[in-house]
Amino acid sequence: MASSLPQAASYRWEQRVFRWRELIASIEALEDRKPVTPDELRQAMQLYPELARDLASARQAAPSSRLTVELEGYYQRLHRALFRTPRIRLNDTLSFLRNELPALARGLRLQILSLGLAFVFFALAGWWLVSAFPELASLFASDEMIETVEGGKLWTSGLLNVMPSSVLSVEIFTNNVMVALFAMCLGVLYGLGTLYILALNGLMLGGIFAFTAQHGLADDLFEFVIAHGVVELSIIVIASAIGFSIGESLARPGELRRSESFRRAVQRGMKLMLPCLVFLIGAGFIEGYISPDPAFGLWTRVLVGIGYFLIFLVFLNGWYWSVLTNAYVPKPLGSPAPRPRG
Amino acid sequence: MKIKTATGVDLNFRVAGPGARSYAYCIDLHIRVLFALTLFFGLSFLWSGAVRVPDSTSEGSELFWYLVFALPLAVYFLYHPVFELLAKGRTPGKRIAGVRIVTQDAQVSGALPILIRNVLRIVDSLPFVYLVGLLTTYFTRDSVRLGDVAAGTLLVYDGDEYGKRKSGELISPEALDRYGVELTEIAQDLLDRWNQLEVSQRQEMGAKLLARLTPDTPAPDESEAVRGRIRDVLAGAHANRD
User: Fold this and answer.
1) Is the pLDDT of residue A175 over 70?
2) Binning pLDDT at 50, 70 and 90, where does residue B173 land?
3) Which residues pair with A145 in a beta bridge?
């Protein structure tokens, strides 16, 4: 129950009412996010410390009174309105794409390279396992897939007769996005979860290629995979590198608190992951529309696959800016501003 | 929890615990599942006059599939981030539960933290029914799940101790201006406690209060009329003044 607010001899609450009326109008104008005039902003800035003083007095006089609760609410709203995060504008996005994204990718170069090699290793291990022990193919392929391949056909042939490209694409990119996000997020298990996802994907790829090779269908599988697979697998590797950096932030936080180190690693990782997800969705459309369609020949698929990968590389490294602006100088994150000469 | 500000007067927030989180999540889950299913069946019915799945060779099935399959899927997966972004940290479920996502310095959260806390649901929802998330809310100081730790966000109660009434509905500056802080607080307190009082007490206290608020007009004889009069007096303070 609210306690009544005693009249403090030194504080005439009623005299403050006209300022609170102005305050409500100010808060509403700021919250609307419409452009405010300099005068309106100046008024809000003046009201902020006044309101703080009123609130402090009210808290002291009667902490649970209605007026105190009311002023608490106004103070929260005015604080939020005055100190809100600035909107993301087009310039911020362009600056991110030009400077921050390439710097983030460069910062993870070592992890990307190491995990790329690890992926190749797991793929070779999968190939060797299924070549040496053919019965292990059932670990990587369903019974239906095995039956189809043993019948001399790839499970991907005639895929478009079963479901339309749109469904296929949506299914594929949803699945791929989930795999990439899992690879990233499971880095929270000190990188072990990420390693599991990477190893599983590598072993599957190698194992299935070995299995199809045993039935003379490896070329057909390569033809199916090449258009979408290069970018898709690259992004899985990048997601794994981000996952490992998250794991490392927990294992070796340095001078930061573990939670702060984790927060920074996830934020850096997510900034890199977002553009990759866009490309992953693109790869899903290629896998839905081009890969299963027999109308596209091998060289067209190779061209699409390599071309899409090059576009991905150019985008990730910000190389296109030099073409667009003719003044591209990559800036590493956190580098000091250049000193004026003389 | 307290958040320091430039004026030296702290902002006070009550952090929402696992109960409020679960409550908000359950409401949101129902809304998005029902909405996605309605969209799926509704569009399917509008397209073909029946709830059925066409084969890949049927005319226009590409567009059909994008509408019927991808749209509900997008609604289901993007429900949380889109609402949290557009409604300043609140989904319909959070609004009903009276909670809001804010940053650690009490600001409305930006796009990146919102995305991060939603992507990290992947880990928080493991191995089932958000067990990781629930456990972390029990064991962390600010009752945050892993996604909130990563995003630097908090879930706080948005309302006040007077329940669901928003700031601005508790006390009217006009009434304060006319009757003073003490009398206005007493009047609004009495209205709040009205149903808990005996009829005779209502009548007696209401009449005494009205004698102070409007000394020139005698109080009505019936208790409900007394309540209506007090309300009118508080609400009409501004008009009376004009």
Assistant:
1) yes
2) low
3) none
Q: Which segment, A25-39, A239-253, B96-110, is predicted with the most confidence on average?
A: A239-253
- Class of residue A340 by CB neighbours under 10 A (exposed 0-12, middle 13-18, buried 19+): exposed
Omega cis (within 30) before B127: yes
The pLDDT tens digits of the residues spanning A213-269 come to: 999 999 999 999 999 999 999 999 999 999 999 999 999 999 999 999 999 999 999
Closest CA to A67 of A6, A23, A24, A22: A6
Check CB contact under 8 Å for B162 and A66.
yes
In this prediction, residue A164 has a pLDDT band, given cuts at 50, 70 and 90, of confident
Residue with token string 């899409």: A308
C-alpha pair distances (Å), B194 with each of A253, B185, B230: 57, 14, 11
> If DSSP codes are grouped into helix, strand and coil, which group holds residue A227?
helix
Cβ contact A73:B160 at 8 Å: yes
Pull the structure tokens for residue B171.
Answer: 């006390």
For the stretch B151-168, pLDDT in tens is 999 999 875 444 444 444
Pairwise CA distance, residues B175 & A139, whole Å: 76
Element of type H or E holding B3: strand B2-3
pLDDT (tens digit, 9 = 90+) per residue, A266-316?
999 999 999 999 999 999 999 999 998 889 999 999 999 999 999 999 999
Which residue does chain A place closest to B110, by CA atoms?
A85
Q: For residue A228, which of A293, A160, A322 has the smallest C-alpha distance?
A: A293
Query: For residue B154, what are the β-bridge partners?
Result: B102
Dist CA A181 CA B211 (whole Å): 68
Do B107 and A73 lie within an 8 Å CB cutoff?
no
User: Which residues in chain A are contacts of B36 at CB distance < 8 A?
Assistant: none
User: Is the Cβ of B144 closer than 8 Å to some Cβ of chain A?
Assistant: no
B62 touches chain A (CB under 8 A): yes
Q: Which residue of B has its CA nearest to A160?
A: B56
Inter-chain contact B180–A14, Cβ cutoff 8 Å? yes
Instruction: Name the range with the highest mean pLDDT among A81-90, A101-110, B193-202.
Output: A101-110
pLDDT the model gives residue B236: 63
- Provide the 3-class DSSP secondary structure of residue B2: strand
CA closest to A288 among chain B residues? B62
Distances (CA, A) of B52 to A61, B164, B179: 67, 44, 67
pTM higher than 0.95, yes or no?
no
Q: List chain A residues with CB under 8 Å of B173.
A: 17, 20-21, 24
Distance separating alpha carbons of residues B13 and B7, to the nearest angstrom: 17
* Alpha-carbon distances of B62 from A103, A291, B208, rounded to whole Å: 40, 17, 74
- Give chain B positions within 8 Å (CB) of A85: 103, 107-110
A340 three-state secondary structure: coil
Total beta-carbon pairs less than 8 A apart between chain A and chain B: 159
The beta-carbon neighbor of A163 closest among B56, B113, B166 is B56
Beta strands in B91-137 (DSSP E): 99-103
Q: Which of residues 114-143 of B touch A (CB under 8 A)?
A: 115-116, 119-120, 122-123
Question: Which candidate from A4, A56, A274 shows the least CB-CB separation from B185?
Answer: A4
